[in-house]
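step=predict obj=Methylglyoxal synthase n=148
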Amino acid sequence: MMKIKMERQKNIALIAHDNKKDDLINWVKENKEILSKHFLCGTGTTSKRISESTELPVKAFKSGPLGGDQQIGARIVEGKIDMVIFFWDPLEAQPHDPDIKALLRIAVLYDIPIATNKSSADYILSSPLMDEEYTREIVDYSDLRISK
């Protein structure tokens, strides 16, 4: 097992599909005081709209369909993102569905807390662990041998 420590100040990725952007923005507004204590990032339009609506600094990556989901996945692998709040639309097919699936897989593989709706985001944010250091344990796959 590998241990990865999350600091008290978390690195939180904020992502939303088009039909869920307003929901995420409203959620961020409701939780602005808590979120202001952490580092925020997100995919293109979502991060820009959150920043404009809340005046919180949100580091912007590319738009999801242009590689933003993959950029966030890469930051998870590098240990630079601690959790993901992803308001996704389960009723709308997305042109970048494979990227979304890859992001979700990486989040699970690296034991990242991930919220996919308001309820799960509320539970994560209200956890006492939000204000503490936390050590994630992930399986060390470096010795994994794939047989042919």
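step=describe
The first helix runs from residue 21 to 30.
step=end
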